[in-house]
Amino acid sequence: MTDTIADATDNHPLGPDTSLLLVDDDGPFLRRLARAMETRGFSVESAESVAEGLAKAKRNPPKYAVVDMRLQDGNGLDVIEAIRERRDDTNVIVLTGYGNIATAVTAVKLGAIDYLAKPADADEVYAALTRKPGEKAEVPENPMSADRVRWEHIQRVYEMCERNVSETARQLNMHRRTLQRILAKRAPR
């Protein structure tokens, strides 16, 4: 009897360890995503702050994690680092409403396997978490607009300048106040 239970968990699409840590400061979204992931077979723990996410990651490093980039009390990348310090086989997805190439590159360097822009639905999150190594994500149907490409470039230079507005403005040959206005706006579609 025990052998059949072990075989059943080994053949589960998620593997024998279904632990999932969700870190997002949008409470209603977090609860909806947690319920949706539980129905897909995950054992979910939720955190609404960097501090709570760090505590849970240190106490019980998960096999899967979905971490929001910007939280009220800091940067979600800190949670990814804490997970990676304790477990190197975690599938980490970065989820954010402030999607840009520079932060995606930083997230991947820290060990994230994918980067999804909000609003992402549970199916997209599940697909990203369970994607096999080497399996490619689907190509988006709509390419980026020229405004979005410009915004992405500004964000990349801003990250390269370690988020220093004055240095970024110099690098882009742009007035500092103009750059500050651009950085304060949401990403164009």
From TrEMBL:
<dbReference type="Pfam" id="PF00072">
    <property type="entry name" value="Response_reg"/>
</dbReference>
<dbReference type="InterPro" id="IPR047772">
    <property type="entry name" value="ActR_PrrA_rreg"/>
</dbReference>
<keyword id="KW-0804">Transcription</keyword>
<keyword id="KW-0902">Two-component regulatory system</keyword>
<protein>
    <submittedName>
        <fullName>Two-component system response regulator</fullName>
    </submittedName>
</protein>
<dbReference type="GO" id="GO:0000160">
    <property type="term" value="P:phosphorelay signal transduction system"/>
</dbReference>
<dbReference type="InterPro" id="IPR011006">
    <property type="entry name" value="CheY-like_superfamily"/>
</dbReference>
<keyword id="KW-0805">Transcription regulation</keyword>
<feature type="modified residue" description="4-aspartylphosphate">
    <location>
        <position position="68"/>
    </location>
</feature>
<dbReference type="InterPro" id="IPR001789">
    <property type="entry name" value="Sig_transdc_resp-reg_receiver"/>
</dbReference>
<feature type="domain" description="Response regulatory">
    <location>
        <begin position="19"/>
        <end position="133"/>
    </location>
</feature>
<dbReference type="InterPro" id="IPR050595">
    <property type="entry name" value="Bact_response_regulator"/>
</dbReference>
<keyword id="KW-0597">Phosphoprotein</keyword>
<dbReference type="GO" id="GO:0003677">
    <property type="term" value="F:DNA binding"/>
</dbReference>
<keyword id="KW-0238">DNA-binding</keyword>
